[in-house]
Amino acid sequence: MKAGVYLHIPFCRSKCDYCGFYSVPVDGMEPGARDGLLARYAEKLIVELRARAGEIADTGADTLYLGGGTPSLMGPALAGRLIDAVRGSVDLDKDAEITLECNPEDFTPETLAGYRDAGINRVVLGVQTLRAEEWRFIGRRARLCGEADLRAFMGVPGIAHCVDLIAGIPGGNPEDARGDAHALLDVRPEHVSAYMLSLEKGTPLAARFRSTFESEKSSRDSFEALMDGLVGGGYTHYEISNFALPGFQSRHNLKYWRFLPYLGLGASAHSFTGGMRRYNVQSMDEYVSENGVRLSLDARGANAAAAEFIMTGLRLIEGISVSYFEEMLGFPLPDGVARRFEELKDEGLVERTHDDAGNGIIRLTREGLFRADDVIFRASEPLL
How far, in Å, CA of 102 to CA of 87, rounded? Predict the structure, then answer.
């Protein structure tokens, strides 16, 4: 099984109110200083890549993902240098999936064509919402993406067009969500990610808004309307928050959900190679200025690994294969977990079925999908 390579680009123009991820705002910097910082960071990524490429030498890689942050701040030339460095250090498949996350304010058809010519073949546009009032509510700093922008994005050939949305923003309603689905079906991006708004502790949005039963119900109804609209329009719902036209599932992200190896590079990046989890403990400043990279081994026992398998695998609409669990972990599904799944089945939150080969499958029901956090915790709790 081939690995993925993830390059973490932790820079953004400014911090959005809902964002709880580590990132470094650069809008206050002079353009020359910002470009110099991005270039130094890219060079350090290349140094780390060359030092750690041996971790996946036996498998090679078939996906490369430039995520963040806002990787589209780099520009096509710098992105191309990173892609060339990966190809020079890792046995990366000729037809590898190579993804770039892009914000609307960095998008022009010409820039996107430049990324394509640099080797990018999949672009994720951070639309989040098409409505100005929802844009203001979540404190989004980037430029609002309108339907004309979507059409311009779709007009660039030679790439898989992917769109990120935040579903269930307070103030919206199911009719708005059906409108989003209609707008997407009009242009038909190859992939849509629709994430339920999460109130991350310590963010400005969490400080000024408290969810209520009514707001949570409205969010669920809106997500359900969007989900049904996309599935009815020909998209496959393959992970809780992800929908794709046939053949366009994210091969890179599937590695996370299927417990497959990936090499993560950059400040605060995580990796899963050789059956071990490692993460970079450096901040961006430390990463750029220090010699070497400080990695920490995330030492996990068999129970912790099994819990993670369940937490990630249950997110997939196809569910968990019991035989695949045993193949990857080296032991059968523990009795305590099996009992929890029986309880969840009795409550209508999971179902047990079989694949074409007769292997046992456990997957979320429709109701379980909307209570996924609780279901996943209860299923994995005996292992924690």
Answer: 22
